[in-house]
Amino acid sequence: MTGSRVSLVAILGGLALAFCQWLIFVYAPEEQVMGLAQKIFYIHLPLAWWGLISFVIACACGILYLTRRDLKFDMYGAAAVEVGMLCCTLTLVTGAIWGRHSWGVWWTWDPRLTTALILWFIYAGCMALRAMPMPESRRASLCSVVAIAGVLDVPLVFLSARLWRSIHPSVFASKGGGLEPEMAVAVIASVLCFGLVWAALLILRSRQLVLGSRLDAMLFDRMMDEDEKQN
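The chain above was modelled as a monomer; its predicted structure follows.
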């Protein structure tokens, strides 16, 4: 995807999210108990879903790298982890704000919150591992293994509110999750619109990492050529 197309996706995503503000604050009714504080839910949920999708993509890229040994898959996986960590971090922050108004505390060791925090630490470790000085192929292999192992926590995060006793609401449960139809429309629109921004971030970061790797290779070749000339 060319730079102009990425820019177009990002602009469309921004415009779509702007339209979602009307859905959130005008079209969707105000929740009776939490009031306006409940509106953060329309940001919290898309961040959570696209963060989980990012980690699934990182796992797929890890598998592709280990089977094909092509460093471009490592770059794509690294971009997915970074975007996923951004979404996951903002998910925890917005969740804490929501929890403070809903439960009266910033944090509680609820199954969904705990599994989400574990997921954050796993991929934070993956990013820390990528920053360590080691041969490129070895670093790529280790990061791929961590990305594959970490994705095992993704279904636990998604299903935790159903598998264990949890005070975290299950949004789309069998009985509708307690959402009014207008709220459901705003939620779905927010998820889809945020997906455009997420896609633009993922593609842009992937291109940056691939181009950065090429520049490093070119710089290394130039340094080797200069050394040969001097010798």
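The longest helix spans residues 181-230.
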